[in-house]
């Protein structure tokens, strides 16, 4: 009997989710089509260089999703489902701090972690969890109502969770069970037709539209699915030409002549979707909610901690210059700041320790019997070894907050005089019963593994760093 391995389950889940979301939100299909057109054009124009940060096969299939849940228990169940797909929690994002509007959530991202798995299918899901215990947003009364509401709902049927555990334990599922698992998993993220309790939803909406989307309904749903594009500026122009209203900016690094680093993202505005509502007198009426949107992203090279600190510093410089000159174009100011303060080539990023690369023996390395130099710098300079950039697989808190925020109509309510509840990656690990991994450690491991391999192949006694 045939079976599906974890990566095959992951790829199938991503494809089916995409098909389902395209039916629910047709504008998403437009975004996917335009992304594919742009990618084909870039590949034609730039050739092999366009595939430096991932093969065209990987990039075309590549998506991230975003989902939102209410409790550590629900997040633990999500971890079981994604664990079955070979996706692990990576990184901790505190959007309560990063957003100006009320976004009472903390988040992580579920994704494959090793190079071979990422190359097979890099599907990742940005997963946010509500923080009812944060008194800046919820008073004691609302907190207990919200917690009771969340405790009483079931997002994922026991059969789905049992199949997930089985896939994790065996690292695969037989065909028939795989089919059932995929069916139940996709269904768990469909928009529910069950009427929304209008007054409860509105109570939460006064605090935060995100709180209402999560805690105002008895089910969950995929919030958006994001294709990857090789030229996001061109994508933005083409979507605008088609009359689709995009948010004002592209989040993240500016367009500039140096290497692409980290992540650039933009989105179109949330669309009004019809939703059944139950009014306090019990009548069911047809209403509309605006929560789901389309997003697209371009990915660049992963930065080291030092590189990331530089990135944050540059954002600060851009903010400062914008505050001195509010009518200036943020994109132009950012470009200017970047050209002054960030190295303009991969070689310099590597030499300054700002970005992650893997290292490989050069096919044209000297073969005249000469002994290789022992330092990495010399190995690169003398053509023994070449460097390949590691693509950034994670998210950026400020961009994520910007994406949340640009799709909220109101600011919501936040009592800044209250002390916020502190959460961090360790707390989250404990709450969901599995380690939330450190993204920097994962990139460093990829780099170090490649260096160990090179040193071994060249017969070098000492480790390269
Ligand atoms: C998640 C927003 C963050 C991203 O790509 O940064 C995000 C959400 O809206 O639930 O998806
Ligand atoms: Ni997103």
Automatic annotation (TrEMBL):
Family, as annotated: Belongs to the 2-oxoadipate dioxygenase/decarboxylase family.
A Pfam match: HGLS
Cofactor(s), by name: Fe(2+)
Record keywords: Dioxygenase, Iron, Oxidoreductase
Protein name: 2-oxoadipate dioxygenase/decarboxylase
EC number: 1.13.11.93
InterPro entries on file: HGLS (IPR009770), YdcJ_bac-like (IPR047869)
Presence of keyword Lyase: no
Superkingdom per UniProt: Bacteria
Oxidoreductase found in the keyword field: yes
Class of enzymatic activity (EC top level): oxidoreductase
